[in-house]
Amino acid sequence: MGHAIEKFALQRGHEIVSIIDVDNQCDFDSEQFKSADVAIEFTTPSTAYDNCLRAIKQGVKVVSGSTGWTDRIPQLRQAVENNENATFFYSSNYSIGVNIFFAVNKYLARIMNGFGQYDVSMKEIHHIHKLDHPSGTAITLANGIICNIDRKTAWTESDTPAAGEVRIEHERTGEVPGTHIIRYKSAVDQITISHEAFSRDGFALGAVVAAEWVSDKTGFLGMDDMLKF
Question: Where in the chain does DSSP place strands (E)?
Answer without folding.
Answer: 38-41, 61-64, 87-90, 119-126, 154-156, 165-172, 179-185, 190-196, 219-221
